[in-house]
Amino acid sequence: MLKMRRGNQMKKIIHAPLISIGIIVLDLVTKYMADSMVEPYEPVNVLPFFNLVNVENRGAAFSMLSNLGNGFFIAVALLAILFILYLLIRTEENPVSLALILGGAVGNLTDRLYYGHVRDFLDFHVGGWHWPSFNVADSALTAGLALLLIQALRPARPAPDKPGQTSPPMQQ
Q1: Closest CA to 108 of 124, 119, 97
Q2: Would the pLDDT of 7 be above 70?
Q3: Which pLDDT does position 114 carry in this prediction?
Q4: Does residue 4 have a pLDDT over 60?
Q5: Which of 46, 67, 110, 131 is 20 to 30 Å from 58 at the Cα level?
Q6: CB count, 10 Å around CB of 3?
Q7: Alpha-carbon gap, residue 89 to 9, rounded angstroms
Q8: Any catalytic annotation for residue 138?
């Protein structure tokens, strides 16, 4: 059992940072590419349902609460990052969901610190209806939160038997 815990701990120590760093790098590189190839607020049609855009998001998801200011979102992001790091250290569970959330939070925090807003560039639409633009960090945050929700709703696994302990007989 101890070996298994240490093995899981080693996987967590290696996998979580790699996932988070991968998300951060991918987010920053794609934002840089969008900034250098797409004029602000001039969509580039890629597919009938997808555009590349270059827009500023000064709020939270879908630009909500933008009137609270950048400092508020920086503080919230820092608190969230500290909480996710705490959970990564404390949890025995698979760290993928937390690593995705961490990478997304750091990617968007980097934008807020450097630019004073988050850079969004992915624009999906159907007809005249557009989903709010987003970026790789937003996608990682969403995927991580979805995985976390699935993990929370999944039935708990029964505890393994301890050596020398017998399971109760099955009833028929």
Answers
A1: 119
A2: no
A3: 96
A4: no
A5: 46
A6: 7
A7: 9
A8: yes
Indicate the length of the chain as a whole number.
172
Write the DSSP string, 75-129: HHHHHHHHHHHHHHHH--S-SHHHHHHHHHHHHHHHHHHHHSSEEEEEEEEETTE
User: Of residues 27, 111, 123, 138, which has the active-site annotation?
Assistant: 138
Residues 118-141: tens digit of each pLDDT: 999 999 999 889 999 999 999 999
Six-digit token pair at 124?
């999906």
Structure tokens at 152: 């929370």
Tell me the two tokens of residue 24.
């951060």
Q: What is the pLDDT of residues 94-122, one digit of tens each?
A: 789 999 999 999 999 999 999 999 999 99
Confidence of residue 3 (pLDDT cuts 50, 70, 90): very low
> What are the residues whose beta carbons fall under 8 Å from the beta carbon of 65, sequence distance 6 or more?
59, 72
- Written as one string, the DSSP assignment of 137-170 is HHHHHHHHHHHHHHHHHSPPPPPPPPTTPPPPPP
Catalytic choice (27, 111, 120, 123): 120
| 13-17, 142-146, 163-167: segment of lowest average pLDDT | 163-167
